[in-house]
């Protein structure tokens, strides 16, 4: 029984060592390349029910993929707790977050177009209209999602 336990501990130790060596190798090979950005633009209006888990899903997804994350919230003058939830979640996960407050749908669409045009080379921009059900498929960890 002791020999079996020692084999299990030994295999576990070898697995841990292999993971650390692969991580060290990856860091030395790719040290000059910047970590790619993932920029998520959320177009919202009174979406407090969904904001926390959407932000949480993208934070976990970016963490697992090894990407830096930035949120831009294009809000159409929400009257609920959408913006306080966003700020609390962004500070809790230590991600960059910018809020653009607009007053009409036309202003929202113009802001989204400007953000897409300002995209940088190493950046992936995802635009999600939380009121459009087709965009919900692009949220990670959603059943039937495309991520």
Helix content: 40-55%
Mean pLDDT equals 85
Which CATH architecture of the largest domain?
Answer: 3-Layer(aba) Sandwich
CATH fold-type name of the largest domain: Rossmann fold
Read across the widest sheet, the strand sequence of neighbours is 3-2-1-4
Helical run tally: 4
Structural class designation: alpha/beta
The oligomerization state is: single chain
End-to-end separation in angstroms reads 45 Å
Envelope shape: elongated
Q: Give a count of the beta strands, DSSP E runs of length 2 or more.
A: 4
Protein name: Glycosyl transferase family 2
Organism: Paenibacillus aquistagni
Keywords: Membrane, Transmembrane, Transmembrane helix
Transmembrane segments: 6-25
In short:
This is Glycosyl transferase family 2. The protein has about 150 residues and is α/β, with parallel strands linked by helices. The chain has helices at about 1-30, 50-65, 80-95, 105-115; strands at about 35-45, 70-75, 95-100, 125-130.
Layout of strands and helices, then pairs:
Layout: H1 2-29, E1 37-44, H2 48-65, E2 68-75, H3 82-93, E3 96-101, H4 105-117, E4 123-129
Parallel strand pairs: 1-2, 1-4, 2-3
Helix pairs in contact: 2-3
Keywords: Membrane, Transmembrane, Transmembrane helix
Protein name: Glycosyl transferase family 2
Organism: Paenibacillus aquistagni
Label this structure with key terms.
single chain, 147 residues, alpha/beta, Rossmann fold, 2 domains, four-stranded parallel β-sheet, 4 helices, transmembrane helix, transmembrane
Describe this structure in words.
This is Glycosyl transferase family 2. Keywords: Membrane, Transmembrane, Transmembrane helix. This protein folds into two domains: 1-33; 37-138, Rossmann fold (3-Layer(aba) Sandwich), CATH 3.40.50. It is 48% helix and 20% strand. It has helices at 2-29, 48-65, 82-93, 105-117, and strands at 37-44, 68-75, 96-101, 123-129. It has a four-stranded parallel beta sheet, with helices on both faces. Strand 2 (68-75), helix 3 (82-93) and strand 3 form a beta-alpha-beta unit. Helix 2 (48-65) packs parallel to helix 3 (82-93).
């Amino acid at each position: 029984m002791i020999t079996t336990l020692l084999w299990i501990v030994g295999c576990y130790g070898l697995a841990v060592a292999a993971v650390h060596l692969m991580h060290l190798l990856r860091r030395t090979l790719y040290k000059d390349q910047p970590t790619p950005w993932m920029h998520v633009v959320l177009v919202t209006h009174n979406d407090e029910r969904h904001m926390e888990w959407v932000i949480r899903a993208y934070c976990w997804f970016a963490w697992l993929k090894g990407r830096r994350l930035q949120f831009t919230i294009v809000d159409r003058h929400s009257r609920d707790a959408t913006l306080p939830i966003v700020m609390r979640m962004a500070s809790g996960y230590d991600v960059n977050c910018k809020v653009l407050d607009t007053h009409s749908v036309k202003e929202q669409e113009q802001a989204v177009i400007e953000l897409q045009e300002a995209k940088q080379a190493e950046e992936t921009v995802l635009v999600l209209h939380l009121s459009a059900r087709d965009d919900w498929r692009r949220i990670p960890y959603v059943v039937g999602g495309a991520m």
